[in-house]
Amino acid sequence: MSWIFLFFAGLFEIGWAIGLKYTDGFSKPLPTLLTIASMIVSLGLLGLALKTLPVGTAYAVWTGIGTVGTALLGIWLLGEPATVIRIACIGLIVCGIVGLKLAA
Q1: How confident is the model at residue 101, as a pLDDT?
Q2: What does pTM read for this prediction?
Q3: How far apart are CA 83 and CA 44, in angstroms?
């Protein structure tokens, strides 16, 4: 169950990272509220996952999911560059996440 909590914590991390872009410096109330709510849910789920998972593994996987998802959504939603080297580096992060899951 902890891995499920951690997975969803990572998804909500993506939500707040992307949400920050849409808050326009916290000047837009709805995106700001949704971003803050996503932060709270993400940290809450991470806390639940940490009940049984090692902190180093959980934190690395949590930030890895957030990093990969945010980078991909930045490419898809925000028109950020999708260069070969960038995609390859995202792939390396995914390999690291999988490796940490297998080693736990």
Answers
A1: 87
A2: 0.89
A3: 34
